[in-house]
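Lay summary. Proteins are chains of building blocks that fold into shapes, and those shapes determine what they do. In this project we predict the shape from the chain. Here is one chain we studied, written as its sequence of building blocks.
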Amino acid sequence: MVRAPQRSPIGSHIPVGGGLAKRGLSYADSVGAETVQVFVSNPRGWAPAPGNPAQDEAFRAGCAERGIPAFVHAPYLINLGSPTPATLENSVRAIEHSLTRGRAIGAAGVVVHAGSAVTAGERDVALKRMREHLLPVLDATAGPRLLIEPTAGGGQALAGRVEDLADYFAALDHHPRLGVCLDTCHAFAAGHDLTAPGGVRAVLRALTKAVGRGRLGLVHANDSKDPAGSGRDRHAMIGAGMIGTGPFGELLASPAVRGVPVLVETPPDGAAADIAVLKRLRG
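And here is the predicted shape, written in a compact code that computers can read:
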């Protein structure tokens, strides 16, 4: 018997103010999400949120009942390439907290931005710094995979273009818990022209070459308000930006993405429309 290829679940980042399960799951149902991403603390601050055990268990059970893979997005401030000791210390704590909370809610992965060297010409030094602080966390903790998300390419990025992930993963000894979250807006802004003929295939080939097969754990499907190579991370709704709908259809049809969760990060009032577009393209 020939099995049908596994489809990628499609969903969105969901709001959880008012309760991880109470608000988050009802929102996921309302927009037709087949996968979800949440913040478990203030994304723009360092203070860890303790969570609510009852809500955690209800969320875990609700996702399992629906067959919805869940992901945690770590705070934006994290930067393990920073030369500032306080930033490094806070970044380690934030990653540990995100992984612990991710395990508590049954998340499949924790997304963290790749970070920056901050100072020009110090990428190699920053990668060593990142290794020194992150490798012990990966060795000492259990639970979700840590999904490294390449950034839009500006500000001395440690990983903007996907090729940069080769050095990043090598610095961490290709740790088995490492994976990748590919953001289409970030990739486009970093110079991967997804609209060019073969552009989607090219970036996926480059990703596999950089980190190996099986490392792609999540896709953030976001259109871009700015042109390729802009270095600006400004999301647009699918089809309303400079990428357009075509490349997203190519992405969903790629064997490299088959079965990998795909979610949008558009504002809450636009998520249902974006999910519907991606499901149509997937179909």
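What the prediction tells us: Strands lie at 10-13, 36-38, 70-73, 109-113, 145-149, 178-183, 216-220, 223-224, 235-236, 262-264.
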